[in-house]
């Protein structure tokens, strides 16, 4: 089973003995003392096969019987040994053997004890300057166990608060049952990670929210790594190989290759991560060592150290590892036999050989630590004279030529290679970036209830939660707080109910709010479980508020505001997933497996940003599920893949971005309210006043309304009819529920009841018209439209019931919304420009940064001729940007494929990099961004009118400074340093390049930006063109008004959280019926940018009469051939115009 070996005698250890001096001509005996399952595994056999090829070692493989059953004195005598723990291995016995025979150790055995305890692992990492996630430890294995305080969304351990989402790790490193707990704002629940079983590595438990109490655990902050897990494999302190995979946190599905191995891809580490690899190797004295790495916003953390680990199925790694270990063993053994006074315990681990002393040099000079890619050594740079030979005591030193990829670095020509030298088999554009701004999906109606409260129980509830400021507003979202509030409301109802309607101690106060509001609060709080993101209660003290403890006497009246609804529906989730599917299948090149292959091989840089609104976040998560073909619940996907913008950057996508424009928006709304309630002498007079831009969709709606003031009265009457019909349905449902003893009879879509629906419409009727002022509140028009559309689609679609006045109300509300909503953001061009650039300034700055990055050719990215792995030549922008990262920026660098493994992985275009940025937002940002694209800003228009070619923009520097300042303020990386170079090209201005006449006509026909409306910006590169050519980069912008008509294609499947089927009979009128998820993708062969379709008619029986020849589509191609430099210049001017309003009306000289 093993080759024979001779134990060295004392004389052989004497350096003066002839036997010692002739030692170089003999083979060294190297043992493998590990369980057979490991020592005979394919990776180990591949490495050992390469070791023996040099014919300098005799290998001894220890059998399980030898290790477990025979005394160490009978174990083979070895001069060096591979020994490491795995299940069943007697580590203490192996240590005794080392004490007896004193072999050279590849991995230190005593330090392997540390690897059994995750707490000790973190201690060692911290002590050696390696970053670990912020964490707290609960020790329950001592005489005085730690205490843990648990709340809905955090735990407190020894005074340290860890907020959800957090990770719960057993202290025992052999226990792989790791749990992740999610906050209620993301839907709650927990994910359980475990050792892979078949094709599963985790499961989601939506109702398990409480932590374990049965042992010692580490609680650490969950770090969003964009769904990527990275494992680093070191072979000594100067060599590392990194592989990335889809994180098990996402959907728990294990991706396997054709032979059943989990799919992983080699990736490039940055210089900081190379230094981390070196520190881990030295700190744990493990030459061969694997550890888990997390890269988050430019900072890298180690979250686990595994000890002995080999890469599976990589010939290049086996070659590299074999040579590194050969050099290490040879140097260590030679070093041993030339030592005059060996230590009692001869440990030849990397640290013991003196590498720890050089740590300071590497720490202060990280640029000297070079891991060119995941499979190459990263060695200290030393100066050598040309032709001179040098020796090094570093056993891990490799020849400079060793380990370079087969053609990756050596085959690449100088970065100054001429573009004319490139040989293009076919001139095909390359997709460089996809940027999309998307409105959220179908949602429930947003609702709000306000009431004055003064009861001591409610005041005490407020007092316990407010800060020292007596006018502090208190927001209640936590499960425990909402439950306490519900209990108080129930108590108050029991107390006041007997006296309702009588004078005296009743809920009514001074003709104020009614007892009915208290009942409604109870119904809303009871209706849905306290989880997710569907309710919020606010307490606002009135101006005269005085705390009960005040000496001046209590005037403890509060305003209680209850908000609910506005949640993404099950239909909305399916819509989002379908849209993600279409993006994946239709926006990216299909070669080499399409987007999924591009993404899984780390050639796709994806980031998803959302505002902090729940419906927007969930839409993004549903989209990501379809986009990346994921499985399971949305909560883990949301937490792992979606970046919710913080306070500084939230204005990019949230309503807070409207702050600078609020005054103008309010003025426009006031003007609209006045104009729509006036009498006009003629229809043309009305159109001239209400639709100054003569937009076709608005003009058509006004002509149908004829007299808006009279139509508002009709609208109010229709609301009255609808609410009356709903009340009748509610009574019938209540009777049926009583007779059947089944409350579910009263349930509608998304768990709403007829009673809650009735209250919703009652409030709309009450709020829409003020009898006192004798005027209509037009701000309620969007709410009326949303409610009737929601009910017609989900509740009154023929599945449960129908109402006679529903369709008439929908048609009339739609006409008003068509006139009102788009013009909230400006009625004339100047207003649309001003409001548009103010609301969208931050988003435009971010899009500009995305475009600039996609169009920037860095020094390393300049066109180079490289050998294709399948023959021929190709353009390969090998980005070596790993030495620069963006720190804490939202735009930190992600992992990139190691191109040296392209041939082994059969990847034809390893240099392909596509940047995808997805922004999910609300309707207001869609309108304003569309206005910016359509109308631009005055300063840029003036600049273009003064010259037809932008030779030099005199404001370029100041515009760049403004953009960078705004990006920095939001915590986003600034524009690339090359902004004055490659992407700042000359361009010839043309109005048709900006937006075609057909596109403008098509936009005029858009009546609504419905759910999932989206704008797509794609950047293409023609790499065969010179860098300064304006056509080198082409921008294509497309637009879809979103879901039109049926929100789904005949889908009557029920969801666990809905009691009704989705709509399949109702289609809103005056809109083209289209596929369920229209997508703004230009058709390659279709020059007609927009097709008009007749509206399908509805027969008397309610069924749709669809024209058989109707082709379904409703996308608009705004532009197909705008030069990238032109688009960047336009965005730069728009972003800067907010900061420099005085420039808006001054033509710029060119």
Helix percentage: 25-40%
**Major sheet attributes:** 7 strands, mixed
Low-confidence stretches: 1-24, 340-348, 352-393, 395-425, 502-512, 858-887, 979-983, 1046-1076, 1081-1113, 1142-1150
* Gyration radius, in Å: 35 Å
Kindly report how far apart the N and C termini lie.
84 Å
Strand % is 15-25%
Helical/strand content category: alpha+beta
Would you tell me the overall average pLDDT?
78
Query: Can you count the beta strands?
Result: 37
User: How many helical elements?
Assistant: 31
| Overall spatial form | globular
Enzyme class: transferase
Main location: cytoplasm
Domain VIP1 N-terminal: 29-117
Organism: Aphanomyces euteiches
Keywords:
single chain, 1150 residues, Rossmann fold, 7-stranded mixed sheet, 6-stranded antiparallel sheet, 31 helices, disordered C terminus
Give an overview in words.
With about 1150 residues, the chain is an alpha+beta fold. Among the domains are: about 1-105 and about 320-350, 3-Layer(aba) Sandwich (Rossmann fold); about 455-555, no CATH class; about 660-825, no CATH class. Helix content is about 35%, strand content about 15%. It is globular and about 110 Å long.
Give a nutshell description of this structure:
It is an enzyme of class 2 (transferase). Helices cover 33% and strands 17% of the residues. It is an alpha+beta fold and 1150 residues long.
């Amino acid at each position: 089973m093993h080759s024979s070996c001779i134990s060295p005698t004392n004389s052989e250890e004497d350096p003066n003995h002839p036997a010692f001096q002739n030692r170089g001509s003999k083979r060294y005996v190297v043992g493998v003392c590990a369980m057979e399952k490991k020592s005979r595994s394919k990776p180990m056999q591949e490495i050992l096969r390469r070791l023996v090829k040099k014919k300098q070692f005799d290998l001894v493989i220890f059998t399980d019987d030898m290790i477990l059953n025979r005394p160490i004195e009978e174990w083979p005598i070895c001069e060096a040994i591979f020994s490491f723990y795995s299940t069943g291995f007697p580590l203490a016995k192996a240590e005794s053997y080392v004490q007896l025979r004193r072999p050279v150790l590849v991995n230190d055995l005593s330090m392997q004890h540390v690897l059994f305890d995750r707490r000790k692992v973190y201690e060692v990492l911290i002590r050696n300057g390696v970053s670990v996630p912020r964490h707290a430890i609960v020790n329950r294995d001592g005489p005085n166990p730690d205490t843990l305080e648990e709340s809905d969304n955090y735990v407190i351990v020894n005074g340290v608060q860890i907020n959800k989402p957090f990770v719960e790790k057993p202290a025992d490193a052999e226990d792989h049952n790791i749990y992740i707990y999610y906050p209620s704002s993301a839907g709650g629940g927990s994910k359980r990670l475990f050792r892979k079983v078949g094709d599963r590595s985790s499961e989601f438990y939506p109702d398990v929210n409480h932590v374990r109490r049965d042992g010692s655990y580490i609680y650490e902050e969950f770090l969003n790594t964009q769904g990527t897990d990275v494992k680093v494999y070191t072979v000594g302190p100067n060599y590392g190989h990194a592989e990335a995979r889809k994180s098990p946190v996402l959907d728990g599905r294990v991706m396997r290759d054709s032979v059943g191995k989990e799919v992983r891809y080699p990736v490039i580490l940055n210089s900081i991560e190379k230094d981390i690899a070196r520190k881990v190797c030295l700190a744990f004295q493990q030459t061969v060592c694997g550890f888990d790495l997390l890269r988050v916003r430019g900072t890298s953390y180690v979250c686990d150290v595994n000890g002995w680990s080999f890469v599976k199925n990589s010939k290049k790694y086996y070659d590299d590892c074999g040579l590194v270990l050969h050099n290490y063993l040879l140097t260590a053994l030679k070093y041993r036999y030339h030592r005059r006074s060996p230590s009692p315990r001869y440990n030849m681990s990397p640290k013991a050989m003196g590498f720890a002393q050089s740590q300071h040099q590497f720490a202060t000079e990280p640029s000297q630590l070079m891991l060119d890619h995941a499979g190459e050594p990263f060695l200290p740079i030393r100066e050598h004279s040309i032709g001179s030979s040098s020796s090094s005591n570093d056993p891990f030193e490799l020849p400079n030529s060793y380990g370079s990829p087969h053609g990756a670095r050596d085959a690449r020509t100088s970065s100054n290679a001429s573009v004319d030298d490139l040989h293009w088999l076919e001139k095909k554009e390359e997709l460089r970036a996809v940027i999309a701004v998307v409105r959220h999906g179908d949602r429930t109606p947003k609702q709000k209830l306000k009431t004055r409260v003064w009861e001591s129980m409610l005041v005490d509830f407020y007092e316990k939660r407010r800060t020292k400021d007596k006018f502090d507003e208190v927001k209640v979202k936590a499960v425990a707080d909402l439950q306490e509030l519900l209990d108080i409301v129930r108590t108050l109802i029991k107390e006041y109910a007997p006296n309702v309607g009588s004078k005296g101690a009743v809920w009514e106060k001074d003709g104020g709010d009614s007892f009915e509001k208290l009942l409604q609060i109870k119904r809303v709080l009871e209706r849905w479980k306290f989880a997710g993101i569907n309710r919020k209660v606010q307490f606002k003290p009135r101006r005269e508020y005085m705390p009960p403890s005040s000496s001046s006497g209590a005037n403890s009246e509060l305003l209680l505001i209850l908000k609910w609804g506005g949640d993404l529906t099950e239909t909305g989730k399916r819509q989002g997933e379908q849209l993600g599917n279409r993006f994946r299948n239709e926006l990216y090149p299909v070669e080499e497996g399409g987007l999924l292959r591009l993404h899984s091989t780390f050639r796709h840089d994806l980031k998803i940003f959302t505002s902090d609104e729940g419906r927007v976040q969930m839409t993004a998560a549903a989209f990501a599920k379809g986009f990346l073909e994921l499985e399971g619940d949305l909560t883990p996907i949301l937490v792992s893949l979606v970046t919710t913008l913080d306070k500084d950057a939230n204005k990019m996508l949230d309503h807070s971005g409207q702050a600078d424009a609020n005054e103008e928006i309010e003025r426009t709304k006031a003007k609209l309210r006045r104009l729509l309630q006036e009498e006009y002498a003629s229809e043309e007079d009305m159109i001239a006043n209400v639709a100054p831009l003569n937009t076709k969709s608005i003009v058509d709606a006004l002509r149908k309304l004829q007299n808006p003031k009279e139509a508002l009265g009709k609208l109010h009457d229709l609301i009255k009819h609808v609410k009356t019909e709903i009340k009748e349905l509610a009574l019938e449902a209540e009777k049926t529920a009583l007779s059947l003893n089944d409350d579910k009879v009263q349930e509608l879509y998304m768990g709403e009841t007829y009673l809650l629906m009735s209250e919703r419409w009652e409030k709309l009727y009450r709020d829409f018209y003020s009898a006192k002022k004798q005027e209509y509140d037009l701000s309620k028009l969007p709410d009326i439209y949303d409610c009737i559309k929601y009910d017609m689609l989900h509740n009154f679609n023929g599945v449960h019931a129908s109402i006679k006045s529903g369709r008439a109300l929908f048609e009339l509300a739609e006409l008003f919304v068509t006139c009102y909503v788009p013009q909230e953001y400006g009625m004339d061009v100047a207003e649309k420009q001003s409001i548009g650039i103010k609301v969208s300034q931050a988003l435009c700055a971010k899009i500009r940064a995305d475009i600039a990055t996609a169009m920037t050719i860095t020094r390393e990215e300049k066109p180079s001729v490289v050998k294709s792995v399948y023959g021929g030549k190709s353009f390969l922008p090998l980005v070596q940007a790993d030495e620069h990262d963006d720190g804490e920026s939202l735009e930190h660098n992600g992992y990139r494929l190691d191109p040296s493994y392209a041939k082994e992985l059969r990847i034809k275009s390893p240099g392909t990099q596509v940047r995808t940025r997805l922004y999910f937002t609300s309707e207001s940002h869609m309108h304003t961004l569309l206005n910016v694209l359509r109308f631009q800003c005055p300063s840029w228009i003036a600049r273009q009118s003064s010259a037809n070619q932008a030779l030099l923009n005199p404001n370029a520097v100041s515009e760049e400074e403004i953009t960078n300042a705004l990006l920095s303020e939001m915590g986003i990386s600034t524009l690339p340093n090359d902004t004055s170079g490659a992407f700042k090209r000359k361009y010839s201005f043309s109005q048709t390049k900006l937006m075609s006449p057909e596109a403008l006509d098509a936009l005029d026909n858009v009546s609504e930006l419905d759910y999932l409306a989206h704008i797509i910006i794609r950047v293409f590169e023609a790499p065969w063109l010179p860098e300064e050519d304006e056509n080198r980069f082409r921008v294509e912008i497309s637009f879809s008004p979103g879901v039109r008509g049926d929100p789904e294609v005949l889908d009557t499947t029920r969801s666990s959280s809905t009691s009704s089927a989705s709509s399949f009979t109702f289609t809103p009128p005056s809109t083209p019926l289209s596929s369920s998820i229209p997508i703004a993708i230009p058709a390659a062969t279709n020059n007609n940018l927009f097709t008009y379709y007749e509206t399908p008619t509805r027969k008397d029986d309610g069924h749709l009469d669809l024209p058989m020849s109707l082709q379904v589509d409703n996308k608009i191609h705004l532009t197909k051939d705008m030069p990238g430099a032109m688009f960047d210049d336009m965005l730069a001017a728009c972003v800067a115009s907010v900061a420099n309003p005085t420039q808006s009306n001054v033509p710029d000289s060119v």
